[in-house]
Amino acid sequence: MGEVDPAFVQSLEHQPKLDIIEADGIPLIDLSPLINSSDNDSSLASLVSKVGDACKNWGFFQVINHGVPLKYREKIELAERKFFALSKEEKKKVSRGEANPLGYYDTEHTKNVRDWKEVFDFTVMNPTIVPASHVPEDKELREWVNRWPQYPPELREACEEYAAEMEKLAYKLLELIALSLGLPRTRLNGFFKEHTSFIRLNHYPVCPVPQLVLGVGRHKDAGALTILAQDDVGGLEVKRKTDGEWVFVKPTPNAYIINVGDIIQVWSNDKYESVEHRVMVNSKKERFSIPFFLNPAHFTWVEPLEELTNKENPKYKAYNWGKFFVTRKLSNFKKLDVENIQIYHFRI
């Protein structure tokens, strides 16, 4: 990535400003009441209220005292750095492709502009079952199977241990979000019995022209929620709902950044909104991050929850998650002639 290919260059209106605005307002939420509280506990009620306010006002929040032992994060971060330090030739031995989009990739597009990054993807359930194609009439299913490199040998174990911890944290967060919407605590859990969740290892190399390109272009996350571990370099920017400004999320040591995805926006019938975000790159330092994307089973039909709508006002018609997901995956490989699938295509 030494020379800048025009494929990376953002159109003028989407080029990042280097004089960043820091997002002081993104809530920092202490999850320790979860460890020693009951459903009736006032500290839990306060926590639920904070999560609800954060989902409503920001679509993003950070969590501390989340119960994930630091050793698992340190182990995966170290293995990630070792993997991305390998030669391009070595990394490409586990390249992903259209048939099995797991493994290494360095030519991803967001909004049809190439991202300044390289990634390694793996699913939490191995294998993960998804539709074989995005074509609605095609009922065939396919297995996605994780691809692990020979080196570093500890990468697989580090990834699998970390995935188990992320799954536990995701259910805690899902239950808090359900409670904040006035739903029973485990109302949303059933959608994830055969989930299609995946984890991405991101590496953003040093970039000579950070004012022209983005590590990831502006986008919303298609799944239910995302749990992000970022290093101390930082680069995540969130579009503030109050004024549309891009604000920088300053790294907090050992915190996780949580954002509501499109599925929760639809389930909540727009009470909570999936917010646009993007990643800036750096002319002096490389950056690493690890997002966990919580996604339901492929056969899930996503629509506003009956409890949160009166029958007259659902804002979305139902869509099949598996078909939506594989359509979005396809767009990562190809510069499409049309806009990628979005939830507003299902708006009533």
TrEMBL record:
UniProt keyword annotation of Repressor present: no
A biological-process GO annotation: response to molecule of fungal origin
Originating organism: Olea europaea subsp. europaea
Molecular functions (GO terms): 2-oxoglutarate-dependent dioxygenase activity; metal ion binding
Keywords, alphabetical: Iron, Metal-binding, Oxidoreductase
Pfam family, one: DIOX_N
Superkingdom of this protein's organism: Eukaryota
Family: Belongs to the iron/ascorbate-dependent oxidoreductase family.
Domain Fe2OG dioxygenase, chain residue ranges per copy: 195-296
Name assigned to this protein: DMR6-LIKE OXYGENASE 2-like
Keyword Magnesium: no
Lineage per the UniProt record: Eukaryota, Viridiplantae, Streptophyta, Embryophyta, Tracheophyta
